Amino acid sequence: MKLKDVKPGETVTVKKVLGTGPIRRRIFDMGITPRTQIFVRKVAPLGDPIEVTVRNYELSLRKDEANEIEVE
């Protein structure tokens, strides 16, 4: 499952970060690494952006970034 498919209020664990180049690097720089817990706080009406809590801080992700994060 991808992070963009997770419903608000759910907590998931990062399984794998897909993608290459700058997008992958940006995701890692935000602290999203394998085995990290992510709590999905809110999803905008059109699905973009997605507000999450990672490592005790709040973060907004674009739908294309969330599509590169595989979770379980």
From TrEMBL:
Q: Which residues form a coiled coil?
A: none
Q: Which UniProt keywords apply?
A: Iron
InterPro entries tied to this protein = Fe-transptr_FeoA-like, FeoA, FeoA_core_dom, Transcriptional_repressor_C
The segment(s) forming the Ferrous iron transporter FeoA-like domain are 1-72
Listed name of the protein: Ferrous iron transport protein A
